[in-house]
Amino acid sequence: xxxxxxxxxxxxxxxxxxxxxxxxxxxxxxxxxxxxxxxxxxxxxxxxxxxxxxxxxxxxxxxxxxxxxxxxxxxxxxxxxxxxxxxxxxxxxxxxxxxxxxxxxxxxxxxxxxxxxxxxxxxxxxxxxxxxxxxxxxxxxxxxxxxxxxxxxxxxxxxxxxxxxxxxxxxxxxxxxxxxxxxxxxxxxxxxxxxxxxxxxxxxxxxxxxxxxxxxxxxxxxxxxxxxxxxxxxxxxxxxxxxxxxxxxxxxxxxxxxxxxxxxxxxxxxxxxxxxxxxxxxxxxxxxxxxxxxxxxxxxxxxxxxxxxxxxxxxxxxxxxxxxxxxxxxxxxxxxxxxxxxxxxxxxxxxxxxxxxx
Length: 358
Prior knowledge:
Helices cover 41% and strands 16% of the residues. It is of the alpha/beta class.
């Protein structure tokens, strides 16, 4: 029994973003819970169906943000789990503009609809520790009350701040609804496929010269557990969700059996472009700043209120490595590209040193 106490599992739950990895797994897990009557997965009409196999017990609804209001009212929804967030811009699908449209405008429209849903008694919103930003002025550890020392440079971090602002407004307008905001650390695990897992899956990993940031990760299965508890129990408020402990980036690279390739900080965006060209995933300023400065959050509130402690950061990382060991082939082309990256970094270091000489 958690300290929050059971509030009665909701009869009808709507989960947004079920065409994505996290949303599909959350919806499937809720649908398998006999305490919950119906699980309805909502996605825009153009979303893909790659994860359909997970959703055989989930009712799928294709609806755009403008029609979500009538949907919530018609279904007599008791709870909403909002997971339809984009963490990095996709140039092939509208880039940063489309990302902000989905994250910020989509959340605003969903909350406006939820405000008028008469039976709604629970709202769970995915957030991120990116809300704290990452800069040289950061404290050693962020608590839920810590304000970011600087506005995040990355689009995702700024979107998260806007989203949480809308949720605060919703709480004022609907104090009868239990609203839970979960600030997740980056996901890792045996099955998670994220920007960060693709970063560590590279045989040669670009790092920032002279920097060794402290990192926290969250095992994907623990993220599912916290989300599930947020629906079937009552946990109002905002929570940091991360694995205890930290790993320095250099430690993580060694544990992964990879090779770090240091570049000067101004050149990291070029290294990210090279990684994209090689098919290793998309990178933005949120990720770049994380690799430069790191970020650590306090999870005391989560452990106290949920009665649950996630697996440690090191355990989550090791589980990811065991699942992906040997999964990356160091081809001749990739090795040549990595060699060029190393040489470019060496040239940058020599050039900077030359400029500093009197």
